[in-house]
Amino acid sequence: MNYIGSKYKLGNFIKETILSVAGSDLSDRVFCDIFAGTGIIGRNFKQEVKKVISNDLEYYSFVLNKNYIENHSPIKNKEIFIEELNNIEPKEEFIFKNYCKGGEGNRQYFSDKNGKKIDAIRTKIKEWKENKKMDDSLYYFLLTSLLEAADKVANTASVYGAYLKHLKKSAQKDLILIPAEYEINNNRHQVFNTDSNKLIKQIKGFILYLDPPYNSRQYGANYHLLNTIAKYDNFIPKGKTGLPEYNKSKYCSKNYVKEEFEELIKNADFKYIFLSYNNEGLMPPEDIKNIMSKYGKLDFASKSYQRFKADKDENRSHLANNTEEYIYILEKN
Fold first, then answer.
1. Which of 151, 158, 231, 263 could pair covalently with 310 via S-S, beta carbons 3.0-4.6 A apart?
2. Domains, the chain, ordered by start
């Protein structure tokens, strides 16, 4: 998925940095990714550690990580469910009515055809779950497959803060579910959907990886439609973009971010804390260093990379100029 702040391209650098500090044998250790997003970093450590704890405030992220992190054993006959959903008859329900040109909302996040198919698939998954024809592992596997398929045909400049006036080429393609395959292993993992500063008081482990929002853009607004498909609850969409009520993170506020960040570091019962943060963030490097150094021995690593950028004005996404990514490394007292 095209995702603001995605660590997909930095995954190897982050993993190598963590292993060089925390040790190469983590088979008996707990690793926590507390701002998980699409879960790329947690996935990279799923085979390395005894347990991954994954968390994010956004529900679509929770769904993705329930599949990619928490699912760890084979699911029987999952291909049969995928095939049935791919051949389902379209329905004119919530997504079509509110987020397609032919619906009542006159919005164009999806083509009419794809909006109807999303509705049909989501309705069927909900029906199967309510009738107990599937367990949680299959439920989140199918939901993840739907979210990723919908994202591929969304008529946006990669985020859902706005839709495009005309259907772009990828949005004209038919939505097709591709199985959201996950890694099999023998370990059980845990996924949460809550405020990180509350969760940190309830968990402990060896490695805590932090990738908080860097700027004032709220993920709940930028990815609201993925939450809507994942939850599939009834609400009255607001304004031109059809926003629901959404979570507002204090990490996206210049007034609150430093206080919130220090509370997280202070309450973390982990041996090592690794913070990803770039040079364009709300917290200046000096503030980060001052806060983290209070609680142990601080070091850092850095890497230049081309970050992903969604260009609202030109309705396209591209790679922006080089950004410096820092990993602050804290060994707690």
1. 158
2. 1-54+186-211+250-333 (3.40.50.150), 73-181+214-248 (no CATH)
